[in-house]
Amino acid sequence: MVAVAGAAVVVEAVSAASAGAVRAAEVLPVDGENRVAGDKMELLKELVSKLEHAFSDRLVSVILYGSAASPEHQDRFSDLNVLCVLKQVMPQELMEGEPVLNWWRQKGHPWPLLMSEDEVHNSADCFPIEFHDMKERRRVLYGLDVIAELKVDMRNYRTQVEHDLRSKLLRLRQQGASLLSQSANLLALCVDSVNTFCVLGRHALEVDGKKPKSERRAVVRQLAEVLHADMKPFEILLDIREDQTGADPGGLADPGELFAQYLVCISRLIAFVDGLEGRG
């Protein structure tokens, strides 16, 4: 899922004596009961064990965040987004963590977000999307809850949503332009991207003052209503992503046409967010 870099935030330092200094066993997801179960929970435990072995006392916190930490979690289809906080992130830590990070990526999950304590404390104003998600939906798997006392500056929230939408649309176009004659690869490109655009659509609803749902299909239905747009391309791509048989493509069975209409939907979403300028 999702790329993060850093800058500045208003926050008091989190210490072992603070309210944020809670152990994993004491932390529940912000939204309520967490539904990560079975093999994925075991996989997360294995990840934590490997991170402890790699970093020892330099490991500060491991946090699951996003849809997998939501009460509406769909175990099969939600990415496992993990924040790993270290005392510092230097070349030595990158080298020692490489086998663990590669192992996790080979399991089909997004790269863990590796940050130092200072970066967590000083990045939230530049990345309100990511830290807003962490504030709303998280589960501490190890160590301190470094997010609990974080104050996310939302002044750049709308701008980042629009920036991410536009940059990801440009990338989608660039990649799609080289695959127009390769139907299977073009379709795979669209399927791989739909989750990201659903997440950004949910944040667009937040900027507009709506209370977005967590589940992707519910978000798509909300977007269709707010944008007054047919979001069928999103629905079809989610059907394919979730391997639902018997889905009606509604005249969009051709990957090239589906790609074209998908771009139209994303452009409508961008125009909507652009029109919200001044909201934050």
Explained architecture:
- With 280 residues, this protein is an alpha+beta fold.
- It has 2 domains: 24-143, Beta Polymerase, domain 2 (2-Layer Sandwich); 154-274, Four Helix Bundle (Hemerythrin (Met), subunit A).
- It is built from 9 helices and 4 strands; from the N terminus they run H-E-E-H-E-H-H-E-H-H-H-H-H.
- The chain has helices spanning 38-55, 91-106, 117-121, 128-136, 157-177, 183-207, 216-227, 232-241, 255-274; strands spanning 59-65, 81-86, 113-116, 138-143.
- The chain has a 4-stranded mixed sheet with strand order 3-2-1-4.
- Helix 6 (183-207) crosses helix 8 (232-241).
- It is globular, with a radius of gyration of 19 Å.
- The two termini are 24 Å apart.
- The model is unreliable at 1-34 (pLDDT under 50).
Query: What strand line-up does the widest sheet have?
Result: 3-2-1-4
CATH fold naming of the largest domain: Four Helix Bundle (Hemerythrin (Met), subunit A)
What about the largest sheet?
4 strands, mixed
User: Structural class, please?
Assistant: alpha+beta
Task: Give helix % range.
Answer: 40-55%
Radius of gyration: 19 Å
Percent strand equals 5-15%
Which overall shape is indicated by the principal axes computed on the Cα atoms? globular
Q: Output the helix-strand order.
A: HEEHEHHEHHHHH
Distance between the termini: 24 Å
Q: Give the total of beta strands.
A: 4
Low-pLDDT parts are 1-34
Overall mean pLDDT score? Answer: 83
Multimerization status: single chain
* CATH secondary-structure class of the largest domain: Mainly Alpha
Number of helical elements = 9
Number of domains: 2
What is the annotated CATH architecture of the largest domain?
Answer: Up-down Bundle
